[in-house]
């Protein structure tokens, strides 16, 4: 089993790294940004697009903050050329976006030429501005028609995803080199089918473990199909979101076991099948009642372990976890703190509970601890136990923070004291990990612009560019102007 953290005290790097040094990033290190289709595009029912699970979920009373939805979002579908021009002004060399399954293949029936054409035009705009497109095939917008047949809890969805992925690949592989199959399958399985926080909003542990396995199977099937027609320059990968779970009291065996459970249910349940072709024994035991092992058939694990060329790393924060102080009732489901900083149900059904403890660290508007040292630790762990032995580089495909932005009369947000500092500290953590041998090739800030933040609607703002939702004006924040200088110079200036 992969070594677990051994301390529950704040890591020396937890509150930030030495900011007095000017740091140099190597030539070729990528500086870019990331978005997701449903969060920015809008045009929810234009030119052939039909409902995704998120369109349906937004209509459920109380599911999304103040009933917000993605019907307009940041109106990127109509403003795409201007948005790409803005990326160029900021000096970004890479843009990671997702294609909408519900737009390209409405109802998962036949290809929609107008939907495909939008992404073809986006790719051409990016290339025309010298920006490398990085395409994510699935960022949570499953066609609602497939959810009505069981969604990711239905094994057939993995095969439907592989078909969709190959069709998009065939249409855009001549111009897109970097491909991600799935974004954060933890969220689209556990948070969506057990936690109830994300679409489709279910709270069934059995569905969640089925979805987790089928998402991994879909990744493997899609990767294999694309690999058969890919050229040498294509890079295929997957993006996982990670936590760094520390036991509140490392001398307490119950707390240590709580950290092990979180690490297994969050990190290793995806890492081990992809890199080792097997689920960890302890994870299978933890999820035995929910039935994870029942979903493994034939050569599934061999398919899931199809070689990848890059691992996308999404990191926002770690967590301090503890076991129960009193024995729970026998029928209580284990509860744990999700990566979004909220207690959620887990498919790990048993007699223990896992709770969150809090450290004396600053927090974002999401309530998440600001813990850049966790990113350093994560990258070094991945390099030692997973990516390094496989010879696979990493790219940080999401990292960023929501804060309660205050705009001036011109709409400008001076976020130099919070978001800018957050990004600076995490870039320093990345650089420190690289100095110690982690093979990290790029950093893509989340997010390019303010957008629909899932169940939080438009209440939380992650963008380095402010969106005025009344006028759809884009106003770069202080963090955007600073990030542009970093991207142009490959230098992280000293901050005092």
From TrEMBL:
Pfam family, one: Glyco_hydro_1
EC number(s) per entry: 3.2.1.21
GO MF term set: beta-glucosidase activity
InterPro entries in UniProt: GH, GH_1_N_CS, Glyco_hydro_1, Glyco_hydro_1_AS
Enzyme class: hydrolase
Record has Cell membrane as a keyword: no
Domain of life: Bacteria
Active site per database record: 398
Keywords attached to this entry: Glycosidase, Hydrolase
Assigned protein family: Belongs to the glycosyl hydrolase 1 family.
Protein name: beta-glucosidase
């Amino acid at each position: 089993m992969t070594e677990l953290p051994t301390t529950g005290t704040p890591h020396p790097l937890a509150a930030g790294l030495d900011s007095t040094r000017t740091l140099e990033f190597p030539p070729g290190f990528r500086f870019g940004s990331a978005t997701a289709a449903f969060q920015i595009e809008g045009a929810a029912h234009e030119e052939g697009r039909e409902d995704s699970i998120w369109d349906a979920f937004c209509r459920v009373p109380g599911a999304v903050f103040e009933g917000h939805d993605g019907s307009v979002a940041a109106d990127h579908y109509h403003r795409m050329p201007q948005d790409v021009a803005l990326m160029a002004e900021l000096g970004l060399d890479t843009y990671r976006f997702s294609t909408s399954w519900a737009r390209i293949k409405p109802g998962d029936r036949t290809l929609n030429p107008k939907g495909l054409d939008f992404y073809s035009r986006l790719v051409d705009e990016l290339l025309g501005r010298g920006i490398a497109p990085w395409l994510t095939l699935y960022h949570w917008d499953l066609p609602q028609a497939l959810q009505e047949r069981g969604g990711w809890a239905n094994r057939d969805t993995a095969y439907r995803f592989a078909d969709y992925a190959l069709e998009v690949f065939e249409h855009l592989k001549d111009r897109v080199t970097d491909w991600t199959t799935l974004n954060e399958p933890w969220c689209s399985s556990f948070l969506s089918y057990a936690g109830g926080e994300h679409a489709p909003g279910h709270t069934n542990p059995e569905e969640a473990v089925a979805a987790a396995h089928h998402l991994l199977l879909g990744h493997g099937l899609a990767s294999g199909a694309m690999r058969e027609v890919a050229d040498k320059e294509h890079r295929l990968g997957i993006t996982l979101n990670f936590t760094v779970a520390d036991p509140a009291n490392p001398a307490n065996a119950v707390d240590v076991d709580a950290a092990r459970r979180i690490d297994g249910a969050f990190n290793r349940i995806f890492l081990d099948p992809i890199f080792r072709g097997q689920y960890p024994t302890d994870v299978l035991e933890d999820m035995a009642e929910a039935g994870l092992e029942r979903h493994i058939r034939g050569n599934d694990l061999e398919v899931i372990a199809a070689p990848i060329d890059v691992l996308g790393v999404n990191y926002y924060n770690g967590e301090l976890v503890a076991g129960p102080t009193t024995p729970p009732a026998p029928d209580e489901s284990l509860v744990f703190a999700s990566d979004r900083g909220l207690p959620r149900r887990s498919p790990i059904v048993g007699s223990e509970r896992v709770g969150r403890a809090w450290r004396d660290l600053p927090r974002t508007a999401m309530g998440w601890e600001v813990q850049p040292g966790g990113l350093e630790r994560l990258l070094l762990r991945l390099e030692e136990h997973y990516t390094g032995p496989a010879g696979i580089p990493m790219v940080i495909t999401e990292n960023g923070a929501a804060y309660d932005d205050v705009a001036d009369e011109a709409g400008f947000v001076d976020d130099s004291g919070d978001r800018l500092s957050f990004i600076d500290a995490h870039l320093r953590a990345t650089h420190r990990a690289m100095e110690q041998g982690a093979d990290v090739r790029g950093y893509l800030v989340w997010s390019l612009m303010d957008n629909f933040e899932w169940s939080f609607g438009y209440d939380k703002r992650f963008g380095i560019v402010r969106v005025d939702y009344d006028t759809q004006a884009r106003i770069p924040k202080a963090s955007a102007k600073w990030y542009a200088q970093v991207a142009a110079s490959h230098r992280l200036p000293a901050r005092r």
